Amino acid sequence: MAAIKAFQAVYYNPEKIKNFNEVMCPPYDVISKEQQDEYYKTSPYNFIRLELPKESSKDNARENRYTRAHKTFEDWLSKGVLVKDDTPAIYYYKQEYKIRGQKHSRLGFISLMKMGDDAGVKIYPHENTHASAKTDRLTLWKSLKAALSCIFVCFSDKQKKVETIFVKEVSTKKPLIDVVDHDKVRHMLWRMDNPEHIATIENVLDGQQLFIADGHHRFEVAQEYRRQQMKSRTRITGNEPFNYVMTYFTNMESPDLQIFPMHRIVKQFPTQLDFLEEYFRIDKIKNKEDLLILLAKAGQNEHAFGLYDRTGIRLLRLKNKSLIDKLVQGSTKEYRNLDASILKSLVFDRVGVASEDILYTKDMEHATSMVDEKMADAAFIMNAVQIKQLRAIALTGERMPPKTTYFYPKVLSGLTIHKMG
User: Fold this and answer.
1) How far is CA 276 from CA 130, 147, 280, 283, 351, in A?
2) Tens digits of per-residue pLDDT, 78-134?
3) Where are the domains of the chain?
4) CATH for 262-383?
5) Distance from chain centroid for Cα 235
């Protein structure tokens, strides 16, 4: 059985929605309360009403944000605001964006991915998850009998067969959806239902090791939803919609696969830092721009991170790699060699930094401004995890701590929906 499958996605009806910019939103886990309010105001049909419905003080077991999302979903389907595709398809998805003024584009596709022992692939997660987030998504998906957002998976396509189909057969057509988000990322979606091309893509992925880049909570929720559905049925064919999870696939060989660093904001941190000299070479840095340059350079051959506090900016470089095996916690060499693991064991654990006193951000300016505004004592500026590190750790079966990686750009919510009921 093929690892992936074309499907009849539910999506916004272009005859009803004239401005897709007004109805799309990011994934639920990167939306702040202020952003939630903003998306609610943008349009009565904004996807936020399904993806992250608002709570009310009057909520109870019979009337709550999950039941409201269900009513909204059914209402939009009945009004034709959302429509189900006529035939199964794979949906090519291209994102165009800039980083420090340089243009990039990331190509992938959205399809269903088989779960279970007969999936034909091995799926490797790399991050731990929080139980509360999984409970929320499971309750929502069960209420709607639908998966609202994709998981994000990396596959290998060194011969660029998937990209070749896009360039020759798809890219010249008008996108089904063309939208620019708040980060000025352009998102374009095309449907492709050619059976021969779908078979080629299926063959590319057959037998592969697939790595979850983002959406670990959603993957585990899809697995749990499947388990619950299988328990309630006496006959299972394997083709039921709940046996598949809606997935965005992209080529890990692509140079435009961007992983951003996740910086650490520490609310309480000591001012006496002499203990750092035991493990690190410490260089004082003039400004944040120099720090980024020197940190990236050091990261090519060393374990390093920046420290920003109210006394100045420093670059910390590990003195001796032998310290890792002696002092850094973790059951595998790959895990212990993560900068985040080294920082935790040699710095945070040493001074007793509690996990609840650490905030995470991909934005260095946000991290440093928290210190400047005296909302935090220190910020640790990190280099990004490399895709080869993610792959190596995932293959060992060990998981990185939550918020270790940030794949950019995020997959937009509202492009496709997978009805599992």
Assistant:
1) 31, 47, 6, 12, 10
2) 999 999 999 999 999 999 999 888 999 999 999 999 998 777 778 988 877 777 788
3) 4-258+409-419, 262-383
4) 3.30.1760
5) 35
